[in-house]
Specification:
By secondary structure, the chain is an alpha/beta fold. Among the domains are: 54 residues, Orthogonal Bundle (434 Repressor (Amino-terminal Domain)), CATH 1.10.260.40; 132 residues, 3-Layer(aba) Sandwich (Rossmann fold). Strand 1, helix 5 and strand 2 form a beta-alpha-beta unit.
């Protein structure tokens, strides 16, 4: 038999390479029974864990980056979505002795930080097919997982939401309450991007209900509290006759509700509002926000698991594309048409 590798130990012990590494390095969360089993296999195969662990330490910085393209400097802290996302990623990474940094980048970025910081992997949030940044990232040849980035290349690791279903559920809820003039605050509708998929769900719900699609009701406002706040003037234009708004982010919905309040418009008596994400504060807003729920922490955990599988050279996931479900949380910001 040739040189015994960490993969040989994992195969015989019927555990993951990550678990063997945890046992060797006395890290992570591993049950006593599994530790005993792995150590027994190490002895049987006469595997030298010290050499393996040393190689792993020399090769890896144990540092991964969450990269958010096209966000203006300062915008990361404006959206609690990213805080919760990084919390989920950090939770999963910490179990394997990895650390996480969060970076906003733009099209002029050189990505030199990947080699300078000796990053072991990247989690890229919200890029798109054909993006110049995508080509730069792929040329780096480092382990990578794409979130909220609809890619046609099946070899890429992707974690997505069922965004179209989210757009459908929020719109169908408002239609069921009798609303017909439903505005969208969507963010940029990039072809095959997250907002575009949600817009498709909005269109499908309108068609099912036999309601006409009016492009005048679509506002590609920035996904921020300021974007939602500024849209309140448009939403209350009496010529538009808008009775409900579906905002594709909870932060945008929060800004819109404040703007409407200052204009003397009551939610939900005058206008119903639906958000998207179900961030931690939405249940504490006045009124509490009806929103499309996603498990942001779980998304972060799954994403970091896919990345670590690549870093240690193992893939337990049969498909490289994971699509997670959404649901609707109905609260106080929606009501039957007045």
């Amino acid at each position: 038999m040739g040189k015994v590798t960490i993969k040989d130990v994992a195969r015989k012990a019927n555990v993951s390479v990550t678990t063997v590494s945890n046992v060797i390095n006395n890290s992570g969360r591993t049950s006593p029974d599994t530790i005993r089993k792995v150590k027994q296999v190490i002895e049987e195969l006469q595997f030298s864990p010290s050499a393996s662990a040393r190689n792993l330490r020399d090769k890896n910085s144990h540092l991964i980056a969450v990269v958010v393209p096209f966000l203006e400097k300062g915008r990361l802290q404006d959206n609690p979505f990213y805080w919760q996302l990084v919390l989920g990623i950090e939770e999963g990474a910490r179990n394997h002795q990895f650390h996480v940094i969060l970076l906003g980048v733009d099209e002029g970025e050189s990505f030199s930080f990947v080699s300078e910081r000796h990053l072991d992997g990247l989690i890229v949030v919200g890029t798109f097919e054909g993006s110049p940044i995508l080509n730069q990232i792929l040329s780096l040849d480092v382990p990578c997982v794409f979130m909220d980035s609809y890619m046609s290349d099946s070899s890429l690791y992707q974690v997505l939401l069922d965004d179209e279903m989210g757009g459908y559920l929020g719109t169908k809820h408002l239609i069921g309450l009798g609303h017909q003039r439903i505005a969208l605050l969507s963010g940029k509708l990039q072809q095959d991007g997250v907002n575009y998929k949600r817009w498709l769900g909005y269109r499908r719900a309108l068609e099912e209900a036999g309601l006409p699609y009016d492009p005048e009701l679509i506002r590609e406002e920035p996904v921020s509290t300021v974007g939602g706040y500024q849209a309140s003037q448009y939403i209350t234009d009496p010529r538009m006759n808008i009775t409900a708004v579906f905002v594709f982010s909870d932060v945008g919905a929060m800004g819109l509700i404040k703007g409407l309040y200052e204009l003397g418009v009551q939610v939900p008596r005058d206008i119903s509002i639906v958000g998207f994400d179900d961030l931690f504060y939405t249940d504490f807003m006045i009124p509490s926000l009806t929103t499309v729920n996603q498990d942001i922490i779980e998304r972060g955990n799954i994403t970091v698991r896919l990345l670590l599988d690549q870093i240690v050279g193992e893939s337990r996931q049969q498909s490289r594309k994971v699509v997670l479900p959404v649901s609707l949380k109905v609260r106080q910001s929606t009501a039957p048409i007045h």
